[in-house]
């Protein structure tokens, strides 16, 4: 079966021997070599992903190589700019789990003024999580297998972050929520054991340092926050009445969806979910360790720190210096966490 990638096509499915789409007339052999044979995903916020055959890949053996085609559906100039940069970014990364790109091309649909930005990628064999769950009838994933997948993901992210690149696809990448402090610590311990690297919760000092990224204002983007910059309850009045009102989304948003990172490249430090810190709760910083490490007490069950505010709170709770706390065994709809990986 041949697929038509015209977003306005009413019947994108065509027979194998067709050169032009029978519904809209668009070309089916893209860039004179790629024939789309199936849809892999239409859930990305920036575009769709297809499975294609490359008819020029091995002309001597008359063998068509399976590849991946990404088609951008966000036509904003910034999205196009990032899309065009992606082949170069991928060329700087060397990991078997990161596909190589063959570059981009423009595809013009019949009877459509929109030019589609397309990118061809190496095809990496495997199932996505949804397919895996479907094949296994949504049975719980074995813990050992889940940790193995997580270990592979962490190693890929390490390669990406070493080059100072950051993943910006919005998709369905929601933050983890309804997590108690003990669960967050156990997660870090298991990942550390699996990867051989030390993952942990940040100390309160580390969290605020990472949030501020060198600034002294209420938020890492200045003194004013709006619901176009972060996810919080814009219907509530700020504690000091200094912030404008906005919308209330009533849920978490995908990580990095506001596309506003601080100077360290970190997203969503204000709002979305409260983030657990390693420290026990203290009323103030008098007597805290001077080296930035977590301030711990002898009573392990004592309340633990939460920072950053959440989607459920007003902007006043999202200030860089606002401190909150709760019992370490409490799970709540707006409680999540962010991890630190020690370099040595």
Compact description:
The chain has 344 residues and is α+β, with helices and mostly antiparallel strands. The protein has helices at 77-91, 129-135, 143-162, 181-195, 204-212; strands spanning 2-3, 13-14, 29-30, 34-41, 47-58, 63-72, 101-108, 115-122, 199-200, 274-280, 304-307, 323-326, 335-337, 340-341. The chain is elongated.
Structure description:
With 344 residues, this protein is α+β, with helices and mostly antiparallel strands. It has three domains: 2-122, Phosphorylase Kinase, domain 1 (2-Layer Sandwich), CATH 3.30.200; 129-162, no CATH class; 166-344, paralog of FGE (formylglycine-generating enzyme), CATH 3.90.1580.10. The protein has helices at 77-91, 129-135, 143-162, 181-195, 204-212, and strands at 2-3, 13-14, 29-30, 34-41, 47-58, 63-72, 101-108, 115-122, 199-200, 274-280, 304-307, 323-326, 335-337, 340-341. The strands form four sheets. The chain has a six-stranded antiparallel β-sheet, covered by helices on one side. The radius of gyration is 24 Å and the shape is elongated.
Q: Could you tell me the radius of gyration in angstroms?
A: 24 Å
Share of β-strand residues: 15-25%
Largest sheet: 6 strands, antiparallel
Q: Tell me, briefly, the overall form.
A: elongated
Name the helicity range.
10-25%
CATH architecture verdict of the largest domain: Alpha-Beta Complex
CATH fold descriptor of the largest domain: paralog of FGE (formylglycine-generating enzyme)
Structural class: alpha+beta
- Number of DSSP E strands: 14
Domain count, please report it. Answer: 3
* Average pLDDT rating: 88
Per CATH, the superfamily of the largest domain is: paralog of FGE (formylglycine-generating enzyme)
Low-confidence stretches: none
CATH secondary-structure class of the largest domain: Alpha Beta
Ends apart, CA distance between termini: 52 Å
